[in-house]
Amino acid sequence: MNTSFIALNAPPSTVPSLVNIPGLVPPGRIPIRILIISIPEAVNNTIHTLHSLGFAEVSQWSRLLPAPNHPGEVMSILTRYWVANN
After folding, report:
1. Which of 5, 23, 70, 76 has its CA 20 to 30 A from that of 31?
2. Each residue's pLDDT tens digit in the chain (86 positions)?
3. Residue 83 and residue 42: Cα distance in Å, rounded?
4. Kind of pairing between the strands at 2-7 and 29-38
């Protein structure tokens, strides 16, 4: 089975994008969410490191959001889409 990952060319993710709202995800694409939770400096550093490795543009990550159940920590989310080629 041949598979591929593609990035969605859209503004940075936001909290509402975490909910799978019917009609927002194009047919044949499965959302995959990558989540980083830590102190703000560590989250930003990880995002920039992943960018330098060619993983994702910095602008594709969500803004820093308070991390639930993690006082003093933040989170950032990247949504990619998986496409299965049958």
Report:
1. 70
2. 444 444 444 444 444 444 455 557 777 888 899 999 999 999 999 999 999 999 999 999 999 999 999 999 999 999 999 987 75
3. 31
4. unpaired
Distance CA 2, CA 13 (A): 27
Q: Given this model, what pLDDT does residue 51 score?
A: 98
Q: What percent of the chain has pLDDT over 70?
A: 72
Q: Looking at the whole model, is its pTM more than 0.70? A: no
Cβ-based neighbours of 77, under 8 Å, separated by 6 or more = 13, 17, 18, 33, 34, 35, 36, 61, 62, 65
Q: What is the DSSP string of 49-72?
A: HHHHTTS--GGGSPPPEEPTT-TT
Tokens linked to 70: 């993690």
